[in-house]
């Protein structure tokens, strides 16, 4: 009986130590937050991610905008996505939320599908660069989350974008 109690105690301690090293999980404040190591923070910042309410966010609109009515990625955009995937993988970040957006030109249903195709294109590029497809949560929002005024061409251009958010959960 004493051996069983000691074994159980050892198992609990080992489990606690292993779980303490997890990058995802409850933080001391009790919220289910994404906890990053100093090296992850450095890489996220270097790649252009900024800390936001839902995790670390990279608005690819600053360097990865889509042409009107397009979900096609250029060679330079694919190279940028490879750089992002490899940088994140190098510090143990293996999942992202990939959120596609559109401007408000056209009907709502079409824009929703277009934003999904944009997010899927980015997701495929990240997967091709080595990220696990199962850890990429891809979603389109259509014109629901603009970052600029859709009244001007410049604003509509900024809204045709994809945003990456770490963690993927």
Automatic annotation (TrEMBL):
Family matches, as InterPro entries: Bact_OuterMem_StrucFunc, OMP_bac, OmpA-like, OmpA-like_sf
Pfam families for this protein: OmpA
PROSITE patterns: OMPA_2, PROKAR_LIPOPROTEIN
Signal peptide range in chain numbering: none
Lineage of source species: Bacteria, Pseudomonadati, Pseudomonadota, Betaproteobacteria, Burkholderiales
Domain OmpA-like: 54-169
Protein name in the entry: OmpA family protein
SUPFAM superfamilies the UniProt entry points to: OmpA-like
Record-level GO cellular component terms: cell outer membrane
Provenance organism: Paucibacter sediminis
Record's subcellular location: Cell outer membrane
């Amino acid at each position: 009986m004493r051996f069983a109690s000691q074994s159980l105690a050892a198992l609990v301690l080992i489990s606690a130590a292993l779980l303490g090293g997890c990058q995802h999980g409850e933080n001391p404040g009790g919220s289910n937050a994404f906890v990053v190591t100093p090296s992850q923070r450095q890489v996220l910042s270097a790649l252009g991610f900024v800390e936001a309410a839902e995790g670390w966010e990279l608005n690819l609109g600053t360097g990865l905008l889509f042409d009107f009515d397009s979900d096609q990625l250029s060679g330079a955009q694919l190279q940028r996505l490879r750089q992002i995937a490899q940088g994140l993988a190098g510090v143990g970040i293996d999942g992202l939320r990939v959120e596609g957006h559109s401007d408000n030109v056209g009907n709502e249903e079409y824009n929703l599908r277009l934003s999904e195709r944009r997010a899927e294109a980015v997701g495929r590029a990240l997967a091709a660069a080595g990220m696990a497809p199962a850890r990429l949560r891809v979603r389109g929002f259509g014109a629901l989350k603009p970052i600029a005024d859709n009244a001007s061409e410049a604003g509509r251009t900024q809204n045709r974008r994809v945003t990456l958010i770490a963690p993927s959960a």
